[in-house]
Amino acid sequence: MTRETRLAEVFITLADTLTEEFDATDLLHYLADACVELLNVDAAGIMLSDLRGGLKLAASSSERIHNLELFELQIDEGPCLDCFRSGEPVTNVTIRQAQDRWPLFVTVAADAGVQSTHALPLRLRGDVVGAMNLVSDDTTLMTHADIALGQALADMATISLLQDRSSIAKTDLADQLQTALNNRVLIEQAKGMLAGQLHISPDEAFNLIRAHARSNNNRLLTDAQNVLNGTLTLRTSTR
């Protein structure tokens, strides 16, 4: 499959919100994975606004960036927070360059193997409803084309997430954002439970749940809930 064909496929998926199968949780994880696949980055994390001025983690492509994003929220410092507050992209910032800007974040990011970081806003008609963090394990800079593509993916996902067809009331927006955040908590619980049961890493546990959902055309949230209530039993290939 060519990159152009894959791009078309990704945009169609991000735009497809009119079916009963649409699920915000699947959308956000799909967006994170698509960014890693299509852009020159090694991991992606997505934060959503709690509509009280703060951010909460909604999706991530790996446990490494999941932990880094949570730390960023805890210390109230880092690229996603700057991006969210300004509404502007924060791109091509190396860890060396950011030592004065984000001293606490830089220390943990470097320990996690991150060498450069980028953040793109999730925007709806000028309102910023979240931010997407992209990190790289080297100092190779994102090109203007990759930054534009990343922003286009973020914009499309935001419209799809909020299912914007005309206007969205503040209460509807809050409900949709909160639902996405609540679903993330359930998936984390299922991931942790499965990791403990099978003695595997959280990333491996998440990949098992996601692979089962995709192969059976299920929602990610549904399979996560079934893991938690014991109606879905998953095994690694060696078990």
Overall CATH architecture of the domain at 3-168: 2-Layer Sandwich
How would you classify the helix and strand content by structural class? Answer: alpha+beta
CATH topology of the domain at 3-168: Beta-Lactamase
Order of helices and strands: HHEEHHEHEEHHHH
Question: Biggest sheet, in brief?
Answer: 5 strands, antiparallel
Looking across the biggest beta sheet, what order are the strands in?
2-1-5-4-3
Sum up the overall morphology in one term. globular
Helicity level, as a percent range?
40-55%
**Head-to-tail CA distance between termini:** 33 Å
Please state roughly what percent of the residues sit in beta strands, choosing from under 5%, 5-15%, 15-25%, 25-35%, 35-45% or over 45%: 15-25%
CATH homologous superfamily designation of the domain at 3-168:
GAF domain
Output the CATH class name of the domain at 3-168: Alpha Beta
Strand segment tally: 5
Taking pLDDT < 50 over at least 5 consecutive residues as the criterion, the unreliable ranges are: 164-168
Radius of gyration: 17 Å
Q: Summarize model confidence as the mean pLDDT.
A: 84
Total helical segments? 9
Structural description of this entry:
- By secondary structure, this protein is of the alpha+beta class.
- It is 54% helix and 15% strand.
- The protein has a domain at 3-168: Beta-Lactamase, CATH 3.30.450.
- Helix 3 runs antiparallel to helix 5 (103-111) and helix 7 packs across helix 9 (220-229).
- The longest helix is centred in the last third of the chain and has 29 residues, at 170-198.
- The chain is globular, with a radius of gyration of 17 Å.
- Mean pLDDT is 84; it is low at 164-168.
